Amino acid sequence: MTDPREKALMDEVSAGSAGAFEQLMKTYQGIVYRTCLFYTGNREDALDVTQEVFVKVFERSGSFRGSGSFKGWLLRITHNESLNWIRSRTRHGDHDRLTAANSPELEPRQEADLVQSENRDRLAEALLSLNPKHRKALTLRYFERMSISEISSLLGCTPGTTKNILFRSLRRLHERLALDGGEP
Amino acid sequence: MSGCEHFEHLIEEYLGGDILSGDLDELERHARSCPECRKIMDLHRELIDTSEGFPEATEEEFAAMRSAVLRRIGAEGKRGKAEPLRKPWLFLPAARPVYFLAFTVLLVAVGFLIGRISPGARDFDDDLLVEEVIRQASLGRGLEGYWESPFTYSNVNIRRQDGRDVILSFDVTRRVDVPTNLDSPLAREVLIYAMIDPSNMGSRFEAMAVAERSMDEKLKEALVFVLLNDPSMPVRLKSLDILSAHASDPAVQNALLTSLSQDPSVQVRLLALQYLASRDVAPELIRRAIAERQDRTDRAVLHLATELMGES
Question: Which DSSP letter does residue B96 get?
């Protein structure tokens, strides 16, 4: 169920209140940004995708009925926009990254950033290959930093089941990472 | 992660961040000698580290992002005036009937096209189905709950792979092949269902043969159920044979005694008597089970009892 305050805020947004919409963005920008950051791997792209998410939230505010969790609705949009961003990445971007990796002029700091970025990419790719439920559980827990009870409420199950889902999701993620040739 | 059921529960507590310190010590000790559990715990930490290493955006960056959003939706400069946003008319609630009508037309058109083009029923999404089957199997319902499961399994086939890995094949909504491990909740669920489903004797025998090699309390409970309820005498004999190795278990011992006194087949009663006597079960319990039977003309059983226990 939606928090009555969230529902009221969304009603105001739906009715066209700019103040309410900005308040809504301030409240959820952190959680949306962190999710986008996981998928994009850098601050600039994450902020761009965050912007796309809030535009979509505004456009679809009339379709939010308040029967489910607002946060769940928002995060669905966030995941979808992040996936759209990944799909739209051009080969040119990948080429740049490859070129940078082979460059002999990389500073140690750049190399460290590159390794960190590659690790994140490896994790992101493995995560994207999971089924939606497992992916959702892991991103809620680790990248949106939600508590078990918050995740339970979003997934509509008990805390015990949530922990079990997390466990199975991690095991599946580990299998995918191992299949891709890299031990986590 | 075979043989780690107890630790799987502790890992779940660990992932939830509410593991007790004593349990954590126990888990850490186990993980030192169990690479599979270790890897899950390491991955958990790696994900936390990755998440914590994310660069946070500054308030200035967020403010710029919010301004960009408001600009794009046509609300820049109106924030302080509490003026309504001008949504494109298609996004207004008043436009919902238009959406509804367009959607209905689209749905009918698509349904019509699919009906014309597709040769058969729509395919199910196997992954979703299997995921739900596994979830149901993980609910840990008791034996009485198996009949309440939303799924019915039939035509069970178990193909052994390396080690304890198996591929379970069974009909649920449709037949699926699920690579799994004999210790998984799914393997247990399907085995138990196969054992207690009276529609296919072959599946019952096959499931019991697999259960014999991977016994646990639930499978034992299912075998007891089979021994006391299965309509087929050969199936009850097979169950009895498997359970005889566990006759020191009080629940199994009670089942053997019940079988001795109540099973309609004299063959089953004789075998039950033989196993009970060979496991040093108290003779008075065996005598009482024999005496409980109303048909006192069970000469074969009385004769064997005399041979085995030196008295009738």
Answer: H
Residue-wise pLDDT for A11-67, tens only, equals 888 887 888 889 999 989 998 998 888 777 778 889 999 999 999 998 888 777 766
Q: Nearest chain B residue to A50 by CA: give it.
A: B65
A1-89 maps to which CATH number? Answer: 1.10.1740.10
The whole-angstrom distance between B310's CA and the closest CA on chain A is: 55
> Taking a C-beta distance cutoff of 8 angstroms, is the pair B38, B32 a contact?
yes
The residue of chain B with its CA nearest to that of A120 is B50
Question: Closest Cα partner for B210 from B173, B160, B278?
Answer: B160
pTM for the model: 0.44
Q: What is the DSSP letter of B271?
A: H
Contact residues on chain B for A170, CB-CB shorter than 8 A: 15, 40, 43-44, 47
Q: Is-contact A31 B51, C-beta < 8 A?
A: no
From the number of C-beta atoms within 10 Å of its C-beta (0-12, 13-18, 19+), residue A67 rates as exposed
Complex confidence, ipTM:
0.73
Calculate how close chain A gets to B139, using CA atoms only, in Å: 8
Domain ranges of chain B: 5-52, 87-117, 123-228, 247-312
Give the tokens for residue B238: 């097979």
Which residues of chain A lie closer than 8 angstroms to B17, CB-CB?
148
Q: What is the mean pLDDT of residues B147-173?
A: 76
Please tell me which of the candidates A123, A133, A163 has its beta carbon nearest to residue B12.
A163
Chain B nearest-CA distance from A33, in A, is: 8
Cβ–Cβ below 8 Å for B96 and A62:
yes
Sorted by where each begins, the domain ranges of chain A are: 1-89, 108-184
| Architecture label for domain A108-184 | Orthogonal Bundle (1.10)
- For residues B229 and B204, what is the distance between their CA atoms, to the nearest angstrom? 13
**CB distance B220 to B251 below 8 Å:** yes
